[in-house]
Fold this protein.
Amino acid sequence: MLPNWLKQRAFLTPNRTAIEISNQKITFQQLHEQVMEMAEKISSLEVKMGDIVAVHMKNSLEMIVVIHALKYVGAVTLLMNVRLSEEEITWQLHDAKPIFLISDYILERISYKQYPIAEVKNREHDSITIQENFHEDDVDTILYTSGTTGHPKGVMLTYGNHYHSAVASALNLGLYQDDCWLACLPFFHVSGLSLLMKNVIYGMKIVVQNNHQPDVLNQVIQDKQITITSVVFKVAKEMVKELAGVYPANFRCMLLGGGPAPMTFLNECVEKRVPVYQTYGMTETASQIVTLSPEYAIEKIGSSGKALFPCQVKIMKEGKEVGRNEEGEIVVTGPNVMNGYYNREEATKENIIDGWFYTGDMGYMDDEGFLYVLDRRKDMFISGGENIYPAQIENVLLSHPHIEDAGVIGVGHEIWGKVPVAFIVSNNMKEEAIYTFLQEKLANYKIPRNIFFVEKLPRNASKKLLRRVLQEWWEELK
Amino acid sequence: MLPNWLKQRAFLTPNRTAIEISNQKITFQQLHEQVMEMAEKISSLEVKMGDIVAVHMKNSLEMIVVIHALKYVGAVTLLMNVRLSEEEITWQLHDAKPIFLISDYILERISYKQYPIAEVKNREHDSITIQENFHEDDVDTILYTSGTTGHPKGVMLTYGNHYHSAVASALNLGLYQDDCWLACLPFFHVSGLSLLMKNVIYGMKIVVQNNHQPDVLNQVIQDKQITITSVVFKVAKEMVKELAGVYPANFRCMLLGGGPAPMTFLNECVEKRVPVYQTYGMTETASQIVTLSPEYAIEKIGSSGKALFPCQVKIMKEGKEVGRNEEGEIVVTGPNVMNGYYNREEATKENIIDGWFYTGDMGYMDDEGFLYVLDRRKDMFISGGENIYPAQIENVLLSHPHIEDAGVIGVGHEIWGKVPVAFIVSNNMKEEAIYTFLQEKLANYKIPRNIFFVEKLPRNASKKLLRRVLQEWWEELK
């Protein structure tokens, strides 16, 4: 039994600043009061304990208030990516069947019961009985994973998953009295959402920043005494590139998720003394599960680190745990790992065996047990019998100073089965120069058969490369 | 499912110093190796999963190794206070029925299967299968507490209780990269034992110090870069008195348990900038459950603070929660709170209702919800850091055929805080004979400093001893 997090936090440290957003500061007590009122208004829409309510909102104080209010009334929150197409939204709504959708504004072309937030806020409200205690096994949120193939699946995260994720992060990164986390990832992704949990569980201030220009973020770190932030690679790269001197001494951690970062970037971080921590995690693990701890940041550059205490990781191949330096599937367990997918018994059974979650990602551990993530399994392809991980080729491309962004996919080939092709964002590189560069760095079979210059790569809200869009581009171009 | 803490810690951060004791340093990897060997040796004594093994040892590296080794083999550890009398030891052994007792040396007058540690260390050993995962609900340790009435009861603490206690402490006190805890409380008390859990769960160094002279402790804090320590009032008072200047800046927390400290002492701490945190906890809560957080240290001087996140506290009277500033019984809940007493279904049912543990302690909350502890279990008092329950001493006295009635109270003492004095009704017993009798039955610290012979004890209509009248008698007699 856990107490209602925000309510208990407001009782314990009412006057601490909880959230700073657009230069407005709000204490835990004020946040609790706003959430109480919102809970009463939502309750007037006849929400019962355990009902699913969908939320389609962009990061804002209102969105945070809605997320907590749904916990107060005991509803399960389905958080929707605001960048989804109408078809994708409709699909998720019909899969999860929430009782209604709360949104920033009416989604005109979505025929589903909707309440824009302005309408919710205008509702009459009466005092209600809130959820005083949270139960570890109760589902709190449903988040759909993009799933590069097939339909997206709804990951069910319990109160226990979120709590233990926050705890595991604190046990690994430490927890300082002056900690202040810069929140610039969307709250509809687990990477952003997990900050809202840490906010109330730690009693730690967060600064919500919606302008993601690298110079703006660097300035916020300086001005707001930020100690930690979590970012995706593309943003981190720009921030570090923009950085003139060094970050303030109290900025102690830049958590870098979303796949292995290239060596050149990590070296630049060492040079500019950027405290970058590579991490590995996914929606199913309620955010990070593996992080490179401070004492190994330089020695093990390029690794994602070791499991957060009390999580565990192993590498499996054909039903057996493999030895060190052998490739296999990354398999994880811990109290932050989900119990299953919503209404997907088969997929749940396939992916969770004896309490261990099979991630579908490929990797290996070195002699000392540090994890190296090779690639999403689905993205890996075989060319003439050789495994090719697109991320590796992308890392090499991105290590070139004149290549701004790069995406690689495997495409059908009558002799080799599949071969790599690359999409590149660059102002002044010529194809020939790229090939010369790659020939020094990569085995021949890994060198892209085609290189396409594009203006921008397709990335989702959390800046993750959408390889399936690259596949569509290829279909048109080939 | 949690990983075997020490084994996982040795995997995650093998080369960090785990323990410093008598100027010897040992890393987590070395500790794990010593524990593995000890587990093999203990296993050769035919210990099975779930067996209870008693430990009667003083703080030492060997004792720490034994405590972890018993977890490796899946045994339940009964930790015995080394200051207990032979009769008290025998009573606990016959109550818990461990399969044997591991001790520093053979306890000559205890007829129970015993293995002195030297003998265990000399055993042949083969490789064994250890407990790779700890289950939250499995009992890890049994610690006896004396009840106000009747016999002591065995508090069962699970792996989950210990884990959540360490987590709750970190969420409240923070967790810094340079944290180093000075361990000077006995590991057979929950206050000391909980440090061994924090040690491996946080991956934090502890410095074990067996010389408790205040000047020595102050010097250790200085020399070993100690950041936190937990002490009993008597020792804290002497340390602060001895302190010439101030503690180093990185010494960030002196946790003070064992009942409310007097204002004069707290004021002295403010003056000398000693970061003293008053706490409240007991064996049943696996150590602290309420702590005064940094921002209120001065404003709320004298309070024990608020519940550690995610624990909860309420004040109950006659089955109802009382309002602010009203006295009542302190009732607590949280994942660190025990599930029950060993083999005491009745006592468990009486004390744990709907998941809330009734502490038997009296207190109130002020307007802002800060807890003030009035009295520990009404009659219990603390003497040199040890809990003394007058009823236990009275029971021993009353067991003598020539003692007709007996009443015990705690009275102020400048060194020990409090000491017991006894009032006795007896026709023909001499003081000397009573002391001889008591020395066989009770730990030294429980033996009354003064014995007064009286004609009759003050009892109410239902024959309940009126201790406050005894207090008045003492005021006249002293």
Remarks:
- The domain at 2-134 of chain A is CATH 3.40.50.980 (Rossmann fold).
- Chain A touches chain B through 36 residues (CB under 8 Å).
- The radius of gyration of chain A is 23 Å.
